[in-house]
Amino acid sequence: MLILPTAMARTVPPGPGGTAAAAPAQPKVDTVGERKAKDAALRYAPGARSTRLTVREPGSSYVKVHFASVKLAPGDRITVADPSGREVYTYHGDPTAARNRGDSPHTVHGRTGFAAMSVDGDTAVVTLHAAKAHHDAADLTRRGFGARVDSYFRGFTEAEAAAANPRPFSVCGADGRRDVACYQQSHPTEYARSNAVARQLVKGLGSCTAWRVGNTNRMLTNQHCMESAADLKASEFQFDYQCATCGGNNPRTGTKVSGLELIKLSPLSALDYALFSVNDFASIQQYGTLYLDVREPTAAERIYIPGHGDVKPKRLSLYEDRDGGTYCKIGTVASGVNTGYLCDSSGGNSGSPVLAASSHKVIALHHLGGCPNWGTRISLVHKEISGMIDNNPPAGVK
């Protein structure tokens, strides 16, 4: 997510050869949704193989259902799905009590129970599936079997998100960002590297960007996107959320995973990074990974930034201005811990990787907007996490 100054920033030209430019302002996570209370129960019905509850918020960008409790008879399951069945998440009981084989990821939010993975769109269909018809349904209900929904998160419309997040000037001129699919043929390496980048839904309410780093189960985002282990447990990460065609507005559902272990934090006052791992790691290995370019940036070198600004499907910031114009480049080599550039970004881009075009490796961790926009120099991050990641590409991989 882009880190947003508290007031509109003026465009300040970067200093020559790496002199300090405008002082970075304080970042924040954009608010992209809200939590709403609900009191609804799914109970066993005599002789029925399923009962259903629909949670709908017209116009919402996602719905994420929170269960206060789930207690099911052996072999039964709860599913949370979009109406088309494109996304389906399955639970055989309360996963916070005991992990059930084959269950989908979940998140926890500082209260009893758990939240299912979000479904894209404005409707979630919650279904209790019975392996057999229960003729003792009334008795099961008396014994506390079934499920209770106590709340849900819903994603803001585009207009609601804009109203909730006054933002600085971080699109530096005309917005040069385009769907990553637009560059599949013309810039195949940049397109391929973007696959390792995921959209982060922070506590059901906020948006950032995160990405795989190295060969093992490790990911990076900003610390201001993940301030604690509790924040990690309440976040989900969506890979391959990108349009299938250039400008098609047809994003794929991709793969959603939840957070596992918070490995190391550096606070906003220092380097502003969070290193962590995820559950169901095998499911995201297909999207590849990124490696760190541990040198210092150089003035005017080409860069590019894949990310999920404005909670949108993944876009690639390759040009500073209009598509096909001046390529993004480093403008301010060093200002404190940061490096600066005029590559476009917006709320949701915080945590995005800034890649050097010469190596296609990460040279900075984007975390602040304002034109110039800013990323923590990855050379500094690497010094602190080098023993916790495997940053050595396999033979034959650059």
Please describe the structure with a list of short key phrases separated by commas or semicolons.
398 residues; mainly beta; Thrombin, subunit H; Jelly Rolls; 34% strand
Q: With helices defined by DSSP (H or I, 4 residues minimum), what is the helix count?
A: 5
Secondary-structure element pattern, one letter each: EEEEEEEEEEHEHEHEEEHEEEEEEEEEEH
Q: What's the main sheet like?
A: 8 strands, antiparallel
Proportion of beta-strand residues:
25-35%
Alpha-beta content class: mainly beta
**Structure summary, number of beta strands:** 25
Number of domains: 2
Instruction: Give the termini distance in whole angstroms.
Output: 28 Å
If you average the pLDDT, what whole number results?
89
Report helical residue fraction.
under 10%
Please tell me the CATH architecture of the largest domain by its name.
Beta Barrel
CATH fold-level label of the largest domain: Thrombin, subunit H
Which spans have pLDDT < 50 for at least 5 consecutive residues? 1-24
| Adjacency order of strands in the biggest sheet | 12-20-19-23-24-25-22-21
Shape annotation: elongated
- Classified by CATH, the class of the largest domain is Mainly Beta
Gyration radius over CA = 22 Å
Short structural summary:
By secondary structure, the protein is mainly beta. Helices cover 8% and strands 34% of the residues.
